[in-house]
Amino acid sequence: MDVVIPALGESITEATIGEWLKKAGDAVKADEPIVSLETDKVAIEVNAPVAGVLRAHKFKEGDTVTVGAVVATVEEGAAASAAPAAKAEASKVASASATATVASTPAAVAATPSAEAPAEAAAYEAIAPAVRVLLDTYNLDSAGITGTGKDGRLTKGDVLAAIEAGTARVKGANVPASAGAAAGAVSAPARREERVRMTRLRQTIARRLKEAQNTAAMLTTFNDVDMSAVMAARNQYKDLFEKKHGVRLGFMSFFVKACALAAKDVPSVNARIDGDEIVFQEFFDVGVAVSGAGGLVVPILRDAQDKSFADIEVEIADFGRRARDNRLKLEELQGGTFTISNGGIFGSLMSTPILSPPQSAILGMHRIEERPVVVKGEIVARPMMYLALSYDHRIVDGREAVTFLVRVKEALEDPTRLVIDL
Fold first, then answer.
1. Of 37, 224, 395, 409, which residue is 20 to 30 A from 121 by alpha carbon distance?
2. Which of 63, 239, 306, 397 is the catalytic position?
3. How far apart are CA 361 and CA 390, in angstroms?
4. For the chain, how far is it from start to end, CA to CA, in angstroms?
């Protein structure tokens, strides 16, 4: 039976073969994922229509396919051949016997790594191309990194997290990547470069961000906020909150609520330009960036103005889980009237975020750090965060942008305002 590319969503007619999850000759179950597709919005898995054996790949990784195209065939009811497995088992037995015979000789010690090389190479080839590029760039040993993707596969996020945590290992060395970088540089061969085709998602992001720069009159205004009150409220109620709602109380719910409250006073921040008209939206749909298997994605938290703290935290946690498993739906990534980007989780002190058209504003959060501030004539240390609001000056005046950011600051420094709507 043919495996056909399904409808991918409104206005999406083609996709890119991201990764084959099953090889030709593998047994597959009905509805088992066999190939991952990359679209302009999100990665999607295509499942086997019936149980049987996957007989052929009609496209290779990186190829562009259209909706309705046949990408593979599955022979219904067939069983995978046992011959390869039997042959592999026989080879194992022979190898084990040979190893036992010469185990005491010096040559045996040298031969062991070469015997393991094919298995290591096969495991390396099973890693997604984008992840392999990252491993090669830093000369890292994939075996020392725990995969969180489907079936334990490595993701780019896993590799980056290992590098940041200092647990990644350089190939051939029993030291962290950070410590072994110098050694790796000395032993590296001649300088080289590698060209990797941009994913369809990355191409779309690049095009849309450049369109925003070319079209919108972008400007950024800054402020800082004392996070003492939010941190105190979170510390006081986090255990009760998690016990009642089954989810942790984070900072993002405070920011979503503060922005929704500020948008009531400054509606142009939540508006958009359509031709020669300004469209004021009475709903507040917030795009919240979360880490996915292929990088950051921005699912939409709809009608945030009507949601409670618990509703927001539950929905964001669900987005995060499904983003890591590539299970977000296309409609969950479309639309949005405002965006919140949290560069602070990566250590960013300050940035000027770029608009996501046709939205007219985006708020950038940053890391919290203790800084000296003057309070009632005295210099004290307070946990401060810089906030950045990028906005489209065609629709949002400077006074409105500053007013919006001040409203957000006031709500965060006195969270009671979020409860009594001030």
1. 37
2. 397
3. 6
4. 61
pLDDT digits (tens, 9 = 90+) for 204-246: 778 888 888 888 899 999 999 999 999 999 999 999 999 999 9
Three-state DSSP state, 55: strand
Q: Which residues of 159-184 are buried (b: 16+ CB within 10 A; e: fewer)?
A: bbbbbeeeebbbbeeeebbeebeeeb
Beta pairing class for 361-365 and 338-342: parallel
Residue in 136, 265, 303, 393 annotated catalytic: 393
Chain-centroid distance, C-alpha 254: 22
The structure tokens 């709903």 sit at: 283
pTM for the model: 0.60
Tell me what pLDDT residue 157 has.
Answer: 74
Whether 177 and 164 have beta carbons less than 8 Å apart is answered as no
d(CA 261, CA 268): 13
Do the beta carbons of residue 69 and residue 4 sit within 8 Å?
A: yes
Give dist(CA 403, CA 156) in Å, integer. Answer: 39
**ω into 358 cis (within 30 of 0):** yes
List all residues 6 or more positions away from 13 whose beta carbon is below 8 Å from its beta carbon.
66, 67
Structure tokens at 346: 């990566």
Tokens 């940041």, residue located: 164
Phi and psi at 327, nearest 5°, equal -115, 15
Q: What number of H helices and E strands is found in the chain?
A: 11, 19
Token duo for residue 214: 């070319």
Quick check: is 239 catalytic? no
Which residues are 15's β-sheet partners?
Answer: 65
Below-70 pLDDT ranges, the chain: 9-11, 40-42, 78-126, 129-130, 150, 172-189, 293-295, 422
Please report how many Cα atoms fall inside a 13 Å half-sphere around the Cα of residue 168, on the Cβ side. 27
Tokens for 333, please give them. 């990534």
DSSP 3-state of 389 = strand
Using DSSP's 3-state secondary structure scheme, residue 17 falls into strand
C-beta contacts of 176-184 below 8 A and 24+ residues apart? 177/138, 177/140, 184/139
| Beta strand 378-392 pairing with 369-375 | antiparallel
Active site residue 397: yes
Identify the structural domains of the chain with CATH numbers, from first to last.
2-76 (2.40.50.100), 126-197 (4.10.320.10), 201-420 (3.30.559.10)
